[in-house]
Amino acid sequence: MPAPSLLAVFAHPDDESLSAGGALARHAADGARTAVLTATWANGTHRAEELAEALRILGAGKPRMLGYADARVPHSAPGCVPFCEAPLDEAVGRVVTHIREFRPDIMVTHDAYGGLPGHPDHVHTHRVTMLAAQAAGLAQLYPDAGAPWQPRALYLATHPHSAVPALRDVVGTRKSVYSVPDELVTATVDVSPWIEQKIAAVLAHRSEVERGALPGLIAALPPDARKRLFATEWYIRHTPVTAAARQTALTV
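^ that's the sequence the OP posted. Answer follows.
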């Protein structure tokens, strides 16, 4: 029996690989349908092309993009409003459309902090996705977005406090990092069998490597350090909204 189908919703190209690349590769390897919805950057941009390559490596299909602008990079979606400034109802409705079209068993997105960096686009993606995951199952909300579909579980990609000291070697000491108490983590996923795919997907975001963002810092690490630091992924399972949710879990 294949693993549950998985739809990941993240803010920027590369977030999918950094935050959930191992889970995506694992579910795809188990025969599950997997897909990634990205809130910012537009089709035709260089980062959209990099995203397509990363998803090919992970087995996650073709990019699905909302097409909003990155809060810090206006040219990411020329002529489009920044994601954080878009009408909330509009953004939620767009995500609902993708949920109802793909019909995932489970979803993954940023935690309430927006992951380690706390980027405003990450935080807003969390908020929008939480609302959309619930709204997708309610027939009278967004009736033009397709037939209702209720994901059985929603997982928030996160980092426990205990993982931060080791990650400080990569992200540095001067940047703020956001993590949660270890006891809040409900799924600790060993993705070491898929670490080469995960790292290859991260490095496919070449422009981020070249500008020295986190993919660039990872590129500079030796293979053993990459495995030690990135072969585990942590998630918080959001309270199920249906009884059936208890029967569907992220592969751990």
